[in-house]
Write a structure and sequence with these properties.
A 7-stranded mixed β-sheet has the order 2-5-8-13-16-18-19, with no helix packed on it. Strands 1-4-7-12-15 form a 5-stranded parallel β-sheet, with no helix packed on it. Strands 3-6-9-14-17 form a 5-stranded parallel β-sheet. Strand 18 and strand 19 form a beta hairpin. The termini are far apart. By secondary structure, it is an alpha/beta fold. It is built from 5 helices and 19 strands.
Length: 209
């Protein structure tokens, strides 16, 4: 790492470059997130308004008029790097390591125990050095109307296209194009989905029949 680099560890993290996660500022940020997460998961706000208020404090971006619905327990590192679109839903055990930006589109469905990793470590153990060494991240995006099946793992830097489906238990290591179904470890395309024009009610009725 460049000893002349005057940026903060947080700035390096957000840029997707090597940084030290045990920097005091970042540790404080994670602790602040833990406090909100603990409230969300254990107090279980009795109203939708109470749950939405906690998400507004935790997440980096959401549609307040049509907020996402995340079933507790929910886990993340910072929260402020997560942006979740309107009408999206995440089932129990959703885990996001948000060292970099995680963009979740509109009307996305996320199954139970899905894990999204926008954080990773150097492969070289001499660089990694356990808790004392640096780590880095890469942004992840999940397009509108995607469906991520239960226990799927989304790896750093992956982009999932609109309307695509990730099979349960898949490990997604590469970008997923729109309108496909992928499954397996590593996830591969197993089916292509038909594209429908917006407002194509006949096509929707056919799919539901």
């Amino acid at each position: 790492m460049d000893s002349m680099d005057k940026r903060t560890e947080k700035e390096k993290m957000l840029a997707g470059e090597l940084y030290h996660a045990f920097d005091k500022t970042l540790m404080n940020d994670r602790q602040a997130a833990k406090v909100l997460i603990n409230k969300y998961n254990t107090q279980l706000a009795t109203t939708l308004e109470g749950r939405t208020e906690l998400l507004q404090q935790l997440l980096g971006g959401m549609d307040e008029s049509d907020p996402p619905f995340i079933e507790p327990p929910f886990y993340c590192d910072y929260g402020y790097n997560i942006h979740m679109g309107s009408g999206s839903y995440a089932n129990f055990g959703f885990t996001v390591l948000d060292a970099c930006r995680v963009e979740i589109g509109k009307r996305v469905l996320i199954g139970p125990n899905v894990q999204v990793y926008a954080a990773t470590h150097p492969l070289d153990g001499h660089v990694r050095k356990g808790c004392t060494g640096p780590e880095f991240g890469a942004p992840i995006s999940i397009g509108d109307d995607a469906w991520v099946g239960g226990a799927a793992i989304i790896c750093p830097g992956v982009r999932i296209g609109n309307n695509s489906v990730i099979g349960a238990g898949s490990v997604v290591t590469k970008d997923v194009e729109p309108y496909v179904v992928v499954a397996g470890n590593p996830a591969k395309v197993i089916r292509r989905l038909e594209r429908h024009a917006a407002g194509d009610e006949a096509a929707v009725e056919k799919l539901g029949s």
